[in-house]
Amino acid sequence: MNYEKLSKEVSYALRHAPWEYELEMDEEGWVSIEQLLTALNTEGRFEYITQNDLAVMIDKSDKKRHEIKAGKIRAMYGHSIPMHIVKEEKIPPDKLYHGTARRFIESIKNNGLLSMSRQYVHLSADIDTARKVGLRRDNSPCILEIDSKRAYENGVKFYHGNEKVWLADKIPSGYISEL
Ligand code: HQG
Fold it and tell me: Residue 123's beta-bridge partner residues?
């Protein structure tokens, strides 16, 4: 089984296009594993996929992107679908980080960090993770430090993604500095 390819397709289904797979998603992003397996196995792009394959996929992945609970599966972050996915609000650590391309810095300084095509701004718990995120878009990414303590105290909401990924609403530029 190509678990990386499977993870990409499951992320696509759960973050961006559940309707293409006829999935009923609840407001926290959960879908029935049975529905997902039926769609994937009907499509026939993979060998026959079982619930255990989904568990192995999550286990082998470099990042914790999905979670399984009580016969359901969901993406932990990354959503772009029109239906709002409710995330658990959480008090952030004092500092968070965001790795991005140098070409976006000017706009981020002017407009703050925006969620762009996703539902939330994505932040990293540590600099190393932020650098990896930034490397997706720039060979020499820029790492931004977010004064999340002050932002939180002033009413910016933060949410749990996974142990490395934090989510937030718009971060105004006054809380952002370049490392
Ligand atoms: C940028 C991956 C101009 C922002 C990663 C980013 C992450 C602005 C891009 C997760 C802006 C959006 C999310 C502004 C933000 N002007 N550009 N005002 N505000 N941007 O992919 O954070 O492997 O939606 O800097 O590792 O890069 O898929 O967000 O460059 O955890 O599991 O707009 O996706 O995880 O890009 O990445 P994205 P992201 P997976």
Answer: 166
